[in-house]
């Protein structure tokens, strides 16, 4: 039977272009991924050591319409069968966001379908519900990515509270900057994770910023500066340090704070489940530490597969579904908001 014949089925076409990944997905009923296509620009930006916004925007323009056509073809559905069109409208690179938002508005208007703007951070959270649809709310979610480090208390779908955030660098940003300083290349997070496996986490005593006793906020500028100072000092003195030890000790300093504050948030809210989301959620040491402590304390820890930790449209479609079933809809005046807050 054709999907279009089942009126209770919700099919969301989702678009994600917040940074350097062009992604299009089709999500059925909030948790079934019919297709999730990702066109990566990593090889393009590696030569620059990071993302070049103008280049990213142009690559999105080249890819987006072809990906939408391919997604519909792979899912075996017609455009008129869609229930809504969802798109990331922030936060992110303004030019990159505008490509996705402009396309989504035109596509939704042409089809006469609802348009849904989705916060990128919220999308990362809902990647968990694609793989673990039976997660019981309320939960605490630790969002860790290149641009964001947040702790959220999610009481129910659409009702959440930010209870902690970074006051300076995001954890992923710190990973990328240290990886660049060490000559490990871009993206830095996976490289730090990889080489740290052969390193000693106690080789260097890098600082942890705990802030005020009751604070659930984060600060990673101090540990970043400490590593940079170590590297510069060694260079000036002609010393050779084991990069595996630097990476392992640096990574441990960041993960120690993330894990400790995540479980402090669990204690404060009294929830029984902890979600992990964002690009840094793919970090093997972070997963291992959260899972181990969660098992000891009887707290269920959930995280998505690595492909759903990085930027992708499937997570945007999942988040949009819960907006759709509550009757939410964005107007055609939807705009890209590069510093969109999750409030």
Outline the structure in words.
The chain is of the alpha/beta class and 343 residues long. It is built from eleven helices and ten strands. A five-stranded mixed β-sheet has the order 3-2-1-4-5, with helices on both faces. A five-stranded mixed β-sheet has the order 8-7-6-9-10, sandwiched between helices. α2 packs parallel to α3 (94-111), α5 (171-181) packs across α6 (188-196) and α5 runs parallel beside α7 (221-237).
A few lines on this structure:
By secondary structure, the chain is of the alpha/beta class. 44% of the residues lie in helices and 19% in strands.
Rg from C-alpha positions? Answer: 20 Å
What average pLDDT do the residues reach? 93
Q: How many distinct beta strands?
A: 10
The biggest sheet amounts to: 5 strands, mixed
What is the overall silhouette?
globular
Count the DSSP helices.
11
Question: What is the chain-wise order of helices and strands?
Answer: EEEHHEHEHEEEHHHHEHEHH
Helical amount among residues, as a percent range? Answer: 40-55%
Q: Separation of termini? A: 42 Å
| Class computed from helices, strands and strand pairing | alpha/beta
Q: Roughly what fraction of the amino acids lie in strands?
A: 15-25%
With strands numbered from the N-terminus, the spatial order across the biggest sheet is: 3-2-1-4-5
Unreliable runs:
1-5
């Amino acid at each position: 039977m054709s999907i279009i014949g089942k009126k209770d089925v919700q099919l969301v076409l989702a678009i994600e272009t917040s940074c350097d990944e062009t992604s299009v997905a089709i999500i059925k009923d909030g948790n079934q991924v019919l297709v999730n296509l990702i066109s990566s620009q990593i090889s393009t930006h590696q030569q620059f050591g990071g993302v070049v916004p103008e280049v990213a925007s142009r690559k999105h323009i080249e890819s987006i319409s072809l990906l939408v056509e391919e997604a519909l073809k792979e899912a075996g559905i017609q455009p008129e069968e869609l229930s809504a069109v969802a798109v990331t409208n922030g936060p992110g690179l303004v030019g990159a966001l505008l490509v996705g938002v402009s396309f989504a508005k035109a596509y939704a208007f042409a089809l006469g379908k609802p348009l849904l703007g989705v916060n990128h951070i919220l999308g990362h959270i809902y990647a968990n519900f694609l793989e673990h649809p039976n997660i019981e709310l309320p939960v605490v979610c630790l969002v860790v990515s290149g641009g964001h480090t947040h702790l959220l208390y999610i009481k129910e779908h659409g009702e959440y509270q930010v209870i902690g955030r970074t006051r300076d660098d995001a954890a992923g940003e710190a990973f990328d900057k240290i990886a660049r300083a060490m000559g490990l290349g871009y993206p830095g997070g996976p490289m730090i994770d990889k080489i740290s496996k052969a390193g000693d986490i106690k080789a260097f005593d890098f600082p942890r910023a705990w802030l005020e006793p009751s604070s659930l906020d984060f600060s990673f500028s101090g540990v970043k500066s400490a590593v940079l100072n170590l590297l510069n000092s060694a260079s000036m003195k002609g010393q050779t340090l084991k990069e595996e030890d630097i990476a392992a000790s640096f990574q441990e300093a960041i993960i120690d704070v993330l894990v400790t504050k995540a479980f402090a948030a669990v204690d404060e809210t009294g929830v029984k489940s902890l979600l992990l989301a964002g690009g840094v959620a793919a970090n093997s040491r972070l997963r291992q530490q959260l899972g181990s402590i969660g098992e000891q304390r009887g707290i269920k820890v959930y995280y998505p597969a690595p492909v759903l930790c990085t930027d992708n449209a499937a997570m945007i479609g999942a988040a949009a579904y819960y907006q759709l079933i509550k009757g939410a809809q964005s107007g055609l005046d939807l705009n890209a908001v590069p510093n969109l807050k999750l409030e």
